[in-house]
Amino acid sequence: MAARKARRRLPSFRHEEELGAPTVLVAGIDEVGRGPLAGPVIAAAVIVDPANLPRTLRRRINDSKRVPEPVREEIYEAVQGRIDYAIGQASVVEIDTLNIHHASFLAMQRAMAALPRTPLFAIVDGNRAPELPCETRPVVGGDALCLSVALASIMAKVTRDRLMRELDARYPGYGWAQNAGYGTEAHRAALLHLGVTPEHRTSFRFVSELLSITD
Length: 215
Prior knowledge:
This protein is an alpha/beta fold. The chain has helices at residues 14-18, 55-58, 69-78, 92-98, 100-114, 142-145, 147-170, 176-179, 185-194, 205-214; strands spanning 26-32, 41-47, 84-90, 121-125, 135-139. It has one domain: 2-Layer Sandwich (Nucleotidyltransferase, domain 5), CATH 3.30.420.10. The protein contains ten helices and five strands, in the order H-E-E-H-H-E-H-H-E-E-H-H-H-H-H. A hairpin with an 8-residue loop joins strand 1 and strand 2 (41-47). The N and C termini lie far apart (68 Å).
């Protein structure tokens, strides 16, 4: 008999339930945009009660990197009014001043502060967490394990992709609507041809080296 095909593992609500959710408010937090050469870093904080999400919708939620862009957009729209969430960001200037690690934490702190309700616990994707006004639980790979963190990754990703499309219209030629500011071959070629914009992270190696050459 052929082996049964392994079922796709989806993010669960187990970590949140261990902290008392949904009776106790637990937020999932994730960020996107640590690696790009351009644009801000965006974080989302999400409080979710699975009872408010149809099963068909829950089964589509996963780490944003595993969800196709059209599906991410559909999920983003479908959860409006069903969850509490907030977005925080750190600008390119803050990234270059603080470094990307601390800027990412700043974006998470801003997202948490903007939530309409204050959670007692926060699950943060990664092995470290910023200082927050509640107890935190870092979870490595949390965006693929925890429902609220997975949804936070989608909310942050959709928000940032939309912003990068707006910036693409302001600074055409770099392909940000397609590459979201990441250092693709086309983006690097455009930097060499068109130069550095105010939305580029001058502390990142390729951009800083280009500036040192052109100075």
